[in-house]
Design brief:
The structure holds 3 protein chains of 3 kinds. Chain A is of the alpha+beta class. Helix content of chain A is 37%, strand content 18%. Chain A is globular, with a radius of gyration of 23 Å. By secondary structure, chain B is of the alpha/beta class. Chain B has 2 domains: 3-140, TIM Barrel (Alpha-Beta Barrel); 143-171. An 8-stranded mixed sheet of chain B has the order 2-1-8-7-6-5-4-3. The longest helix of chain B is centred in the last third of the chain and has 15 residues, at 156-170. Chain B starts with a strand and ends with a helix. Chain C has one domain (11-84). Chain C has 2 helices and 5 strands. Chain C has a 5-stranded antiparallel sheet. The relative contact order of chain C is 0.22. Classes of the chains: A alpha+beta, B alpha/beta, C alpha+beta. The interface between A and B is large, with 38 and 34 residues. The complex binds protoporphyrin IX containing FE and iron/sulfur cluster. The site of iron/sulfur cluster (SF4) has 13 residues of chain A, from loops. Chain C: InterPro entries: DUF2849. Chain C: It holds the Pfam family DUF2849. Chain C: This is DUF2849 domain-containing protein. Chain C: It comes from Bradyrhizobium yuanmingense.
């Protein structure tokens, strides 16, 4: 875990006092809303339907337990007792009062948490694999680099007023859990022939109105040059990115309009100017950041402890273990995913009580560390296998042991019309209904890995384009209508889904999803053929027929 | 609109000319880029100082041949959301070694001062009187900087190295 | 964002109100006939034609310190004269989320 030093703390405190002054000027009328809007966005404050929303960064998804408790405290003291974990390693509070925000920020700053650049047209929270540092086979802990980039992008004097928001994600595993291909810059950590650390750099991914999968702009950028290379991309984007049309302002459009070759030449030219500057990272500097990430003192533990062997007799435990527990790089330990998708619950929400209790469990069983992933679930990254049965019981008491990770009810959904002022339709109630329809664990298990992603408008915060089943809410004659796509995916084989036909009404969405699933069960060649593979093999037609035959 | 230069509110010696304003006899003038290129010879021979108002969508490299001759470059923030001039400023200072006055114009508010100073601006046409008066105080708001720029302030990464070395010496 | 007043024409299809979020705490408020804001829809000034709507909006927009993002929203007036939100979005703003808040479940 990265430990803030005095320097980081000073910056966060300076930011809080600046924002306090800005809020004061806003409330006194010295600043108009038009002037203030950007300032509040740069501190993560949106306006939703009911109130202000406050988005707090959880850089690369790593939280210490005192930080989790501080989030619980904010939920309790300044909000309505819960928070919403998002798809970009942030947490949102939905009912915050502007006048109290500086106090909330100050409380968070005490434990090294901030909300800088969690919205606005600047570089957003740098995200990474939620299993960073513990996944078997990982090349190197990507959080070292995430942190270097986080620092470099924080309050950047040149790039704080970009044409549009800018998101960077980093992965260091073969399996991409950070969805780097749908980011403005995606970084895949690799080693060159000499064994040196560097990155494959992808650029121009993004969802929204015009979705694009990111393209490789450079196959290898040495680790020491990564800041200058990112700076070169940003400088090209800052100068040439479109500012005349908000829907065309993301870097993906610039890359698309120039073509990746021309764009990469521009970047290359710029890079040659700044490559050998003070942006170059000495080994010493990298080592300094690395040294501030601490790892637990793991014990030497057996691969298969007795506790686990005994618990295997309990089918409920086994159901949970099979989809929530993943291998750890250290023998005798595992990574435990905690589902924030209970049957009938809003995806990604956690109450203050759950957050506090999870912090206690993490102290007891996970060396005080918690992770947040883009699927809106949490994880305990270092659980000794012998503790799994006890942990499971404790999670179950908290309503946090739903055995559905990666199954059909592990749904990603944006806030939609229940909260969001840009929404056309509701997302959460659709998710809730689907979790009820597929609540039967045997059925969900039979279906296997299947991701449903739901967005309440074309902005695609719920990643509907890359859901195996994607659901997009639109509005038609004052009614909520949902367009359904299949065959998308967000991992290393990222692809956009295909529309299966005309939109359907709110009440019909769950039926249609059931039809699609039934079609899949009938069409798959064997039980191991996953939904997305069946769609790949057969295309959308057979699904379309099934869904629209009776409609 | 108050002008802040060297950290203080000062009188602006420059008069801004439009494309077609008649050229005054003497005195310091700021002229739009297109006019500057049209009559550079005439303008530079006058007695007063000459500065250029440079739009934020024109390649700043075009100005390089004249950088030794102009006394001021005014970059434009049509709104404070439009950050192109930050890149132009850094290029002028850090790549083209421009040392004359670098002025921020347009929608310049207190909340951008730190960014602007770091990008190399040293003169500010500030929209609001209160912001201009708060300049010094606002400029000192931050003591920690994560990025290296031409302003030479030490970055957090390097400050850590220094601290570490001095600790190393002590023990 | 362009100010709502810059929209060329303001057309309303039926009775409407001006609504916004109060600046200091963000809660949903409605513009009243007394040139202030109220959290009660029943106290909102009702406008019935474009000119009235435009005037009410202009006056609301001018109070930038009081509330933010004012816009015209449709309402329905029941037989008993009770004012009800005119669409789902306004319904949700008026009565809250349709999903139950987790802290209360
Ligand atoms: C009031 C709440 C929100 C507002 C107003 C909002 C607004 C937006 C907008 C306008 C976009 C499209 C940007 C573009 O394409 O240029 C977007 C994209 C996105 N939002 Fe949100 N959002 C909200 C909540 C959320 C939440 C809760 C999540 C996570 C669950 C989220 C995650 C994302 C992601 C991942 C994208 C990615 C698409 C992309 O990068 O192209 N947002 N959001
Ligand atoms: S996808 Fe649309 S409705 Fe959903 S949170 Fe994003 S902006 Fe709001």
């Amino acid at each position: 875990m990265y430990a803030y030093d005095e320097i980081d703390r000073t910056l966060v405190n300076e930011r809080v006092s600046e924002f306090r002054d800005q809020v004061k000027r806003r409330l006194s009328g010295e600043l108009t809303e038009d002037e203030f809007k950007i300032l509040r966005l740069q501190n993560g404050v949106y306006l939703q339907l009911h109130a202000y929303m406050f988005r707090v960064a959880i850089p690369y998804g790593t939280l210490a337990t005192n930080q989790m408790r501080a989030l619980a405290h904010v939920a309790r003291k300044y909000d309505r007792g819960y928070g919403h974990f998002t798809t970009r390693q942030n947490i949102q509070f939905n009912w915050i009062k502007l006048a109290e925000l500086p106090d909330a920020l100050e409380d968070l700053a005490k434990v090294g948490i901030h909300a800088m650049q969690t919205s606005g047209n600047n570089m957003r929270n740098v995200t990474s694999d939620q299993w960073a540092g513990v996944a078997p086979g990982e090349i190197e802990d990507p959080r070292i680099w995430s942190e270097l980039i986080r620092q470099h992008t924080t309050l950047h004097p040149e790039f704080s007023f970009l044409p549009r928001k800018f998101k960077i994600a980093i992965t260091a595993s073969d399996h991409d859990r950070a969805a780097i291909k749908i980011h403005d810059i995606g970084l895949r950590l690799i080693k060159n022939e000499k064994g040196e650390t560097g990155f494959e750099v992808l650029v121009g991914g993004g969802l929204g109105r015009t979705p694009f999968i990111a393209k490789t702009i450079k196959h290898f950028v040495h680790g020491r040059d990564i800041l200058s290379y990112i700076e070169a991309i940003l400088r090209v984007y800052n100068q040439y990115g479109r500012r005349d049309n908000i829907y065309k302002a993301r870097i993906k459009i610039l890359v698309h309009e120039l073509g990746i070759e021309k764009f990469s030449r521009e970047v290359e030219d710029e890079w040659q100017h700044i490559r050998n500057s003070s942006l170059q990272l000495d080994d010493e500097v990298i080592e300094d950041i690395r040294s501030r990430f601490t790892y637990p003192a793991y014990e030497k533990l057996p691969h298969m402890p007795d506790e686990l062997r005994q618990a295997a007799a309990d089918p409920d435990f086994e159901a949970w273990r099979k989809n929530s527990v993943a291998p750890h790089k250290v023998q005798g330990y595992s990574i435990v995913t905690i589902s924030l998708k209970p049957t009938g619950g809003p995806p990604g929400d956690a109450t203050a009580e759950q957050m506090d209790a999870l912090a206690d469990l993490a102290d007891k069983y996970s060396f005080g560390e918690i992770r947040v992933g883009h699927e809106q679930n949490l994880a305990l990254p270092h659980v000794a296998k012998r503790d799994l049965p006890a942990l499971w019981k404790a999670l179950d008491k908290l309503g946090l042991a739903t055995p559905n990770v990666n199954l059909i009810t592990d749904i990603i959904a944006c806030p939609g019309l229940d909260y969001c002022s840009l929404a056309n339709a509701r997302s959460i109630p659709i998710a809730q209904e689907l979790t009820r329809r597929f609540a039967n664990h045997e059925l969900a298990n039979l279906i296997g890995r299947l991701h449903i992603n739901i967005s309440g408008c074309i902005n695609a915060c719920g990643h509907h384009h890359v859901g195996h089943i994607g659901i997009l809410g639109v509005e038609k004659n004052g009614e909520e209508v949902y367009q359904i796509t299949i065959g998308g995916r967000a991992d290393e084989n990222a692809a956009l889904g295909t529309l299966i036909g005309p939109g359907v009404k709110f009440d019909e969405v769950a039926d249609v999803v059931e039809d699609i699933v039934e079609a899949y069960l009938a069409l798959r060649e064997r039980p191991e053929e996953l939904f997305m593979d069946t769609v790949k093999r057969l295309g959308v037609e057979p699904f379309k027929e099934r869904v629209y035959a009776t409609r | 609109m108050p002008l802040v230069n060297g950290g203080k509110i000062v009188d602006d010696s420059f008069v801004k000319l439009a494309v077609d304003t008649p050229l005054p006899e003497g005195g310091d003038i700021l002229v739009p880029a297109e006019r500057f290129f049209g009559e550079a010879d005439v303008l530079l021979k006058r007695s007063g100082k000459v500065g250029v108002i440079w739009p934020n969508n024109r390649d700043i490299a075009e100005l390089v041949p004249y950088l030794g001759k102009v006394a001021a470059v005014a970059l434009v923030f049509p709104t404070f959301r439009d950050g192109r001039a930050y890149s132009q400023a850094r290029l002028l200072r850090e790549r083209y070694n421009y040392r004359g006055e670098l002025r921020a114009t347009g929608q310049v508010l207190r909340d951008q001062f730190v960014f602007m100073l770091r990008a190399g601006f040293d003169a500010f046409e500030v929209k609001k009187q209160a912001d201009a008066e708060a300049f010094m105080q606002t400029a000192k708001r931050y003591s920690v900087f994560y990025q290296p720029t031409g302003d030479g302030r030490i970055t957090a990464l390097h400050r850590r190295m220094q601290l570490r070395h001095s600790e190393g010496v002590g023990t | 964002m362009t100010s709502p007043l810059e929209q060329k024409k303001i057309r309303i299809a039926g009775p409407s109100v001006v609504t916004a979020n109060r600046t200091w705490d963000g809660i949903v408020v409605y513009r009243t006939a007394a040139k202030s804001w109220s959290a009660e829809l029943s106290e909102a000034a009702i406008v019935r034609n474009s000119d009235e709507a435009k005037a009410l909006l202009a006056e609301a927009v001018a109070d930038d310190v009081g509330a933010i993002g004012p816009y015209i929203a449709p309402v329905q007036i029941g037989d008993d004269g009770k004012v009800l939100p005119g669409n789902l979005r306004e319904q949700i703003r008026r009565t809250g989320v349709t999903i139950g808040q987790p802290a209360q479940v």
